[in-house]
Design a protein that fits this description.
With 199 residues, the protein is mainly beta. The protein is built from 2 helices and 24 strands. The longest helix is centred in the first third of the chain and has 12 residues. Bound molecules: coenzyme A (COA).
C-alpha cells in the first residue's frame, strides 16, 4: 500500500501533502483532532489523531512539543521536496520535512521531526536539534548549532559559529550574532530577549 497518513490538517499539512505526492505517495489521508475539518489540500480527513490505520505516518504540526509527543513511538517518514538542494553527506533525521527551495549544505546534520521550510538554508557543518523549525527564508550560516525544539522565525539569520540552546523562539527577521544559552523568545537586530516562553 502506498498510503501516507498526515496528522495535522493545516496549511503546513497541505504543503507536506504536496511534497508527499511529489515523493510518490498516491493515497494521502489526514487525521486531525478538530472534527470540523473535513479535508485539507483536496485530501480527506478520516479521523482524529488517535485513529489507527495502516500506512506511513508524517506529523504536520507546527508546535514542537505537540509534534514531538505525536512522533514518539511511531515510525515517521521523511519528506524532501524534489527542488530542495541537499549535500550528499548531509544527515536528515526521520520525520523531518525539507520544503521547496531549501538548501542544506555539506556536513549539516538535521534532527528528527524538524521543519526546514521553504527557501531556508542550513549551511555547512550546522547541527539542528530534534523538532526544530527553520522557518520560511531563514538562514543558518556555517557551523551553527541549535538545541531541540528551537524555532528560527521567518527571514531570521543566525551568524556563523553561533550556538542557540533548545526551546528558543527566534522572531521573524531577527539577526542572532552571539550564542543564546537561555531558553526564551528573542527578536530584533541584534537579537534581544523579550520573554521566557515559546509559542
Ligand atoms: C517573536 C514572536 C514569536 C513574538 O510573539 P509574541 O510573544 O506574541 O510577542 P508580541 O507580538 O506580543 O510582541 C512583543 C514585543 O516584541 C515585538 N516583536 C514581536 N515580534 C518581533 C519581531 N519579529 N521583530 C521585532 N520585534 C518584534 C513587538 O513589536 C512587541 O513590542 P512592544 O512590546 O514594544 O510593543 C513573533 O512576533 C514572531 O516573530 N513570530 C515568528 C513568525 C514566523 O516566523 N512564522 C514562520 C511561519 S513559516
Amino acid at each position: 500500500m502506498n498510503r501516507l497518513i498526515i496528522i495535522g490538517a493545516s496549511g503546513h499539512g497541505k504543503v507536506a501533502a504536496d511534497i508527499a505526492g511529489l515523493n510518490g505517495y498516491t493515497d494521502i489521508v489526514f487525521l486531525d483532532d478538530n472534527e470540523n475539518v473535513k479535508s485539507c489540500g483536496g485530501y480527506k480527513v478520516i479521523g482524529d489523531s488517535k485513529t489507527v490505520t495502516d500506512g506511513d505516518v508524517f506529523i504536520a504540526i507546527g508546535n514542537a512539543e505537540v509534534r514531538k509527543r505525536l512522533s514518539e513511538g511511531r515510525n515517521i517518514v521523511t519528506l524532501i521536496h524534489p527542488h530542495a538542494v541537499i549535500a550528499r553527506d548531509a544527515v536528515i533525521g526521520e520525520g523531518t520535512v525539507v520544503m521547496a527551495g531549501a538548501v542544506i549544505n555539506p556536513g549539516a546534520r538535521i534532527g528528527r521531526g524538524c521543519i526546514i521550510n521553504t527557501c531556508s538554508s542550513v549551511d555547512h557543518d550546522c547541527t539542528v536539534g530534534d523538532y526544530c523549525h527553520v522557518a520560511v527564508g531563514a538562514h543558518l550560516c556555517g557551523t551553527v548549532k541549535t538545541g531541540d525544539c528551537t524555532w528560527i522565525g521567518a527571514g531570521a539569520t543566525v551568524s556563523n559559529n553561533v550556538n542557540i540552546c533548545g526551546n528558543c523562539t527566534i522572531g521573524a527577521g531577527c539577526v542572532v550574532v552571539k550564542d543564546i544559552a537561555e531558553p526564551g523568545t528573542y527578536v530584533g537586530v541584534p537579537a534581544r530577549k523579550i520573554n521566557g516562553g515559546q509559542d
